[in-house]
Amino acid sequence: AIDRLHWDSISMVFHSHSYLLEFFFDSKEIKISREPLEMLKQARGFSSGEQILIRVALDIWSGSGNTKVWSLLESLDDQSLVNVLKALALFRGLESAN
User: What contacts 60, CB < 8 A, 6 or more positions away?
Assistant: First the structure.
């Protein structure tokens, strides 16, 4: 099961891409929808930016996304980058969910 901090942080990562929240989490219970490696394989059909957001969410979930900082700067649009930075600040306890 997931705690509220993980949920809020991952929701913030996907703030501008809410359909990725549906891809990431199981529809019946609050857990990831598939194993991390399988999720990364299935995400290959997404844009490079969407794939990075999935990786960031997996890093928040379990450290399994292996996100590279340069890929954030290279692949994400400005708003997605801001959302990721806010999510990391929230997860670290530096920002509230509101």
Answer: 6, 9, 10, 13, 87, 88, 91
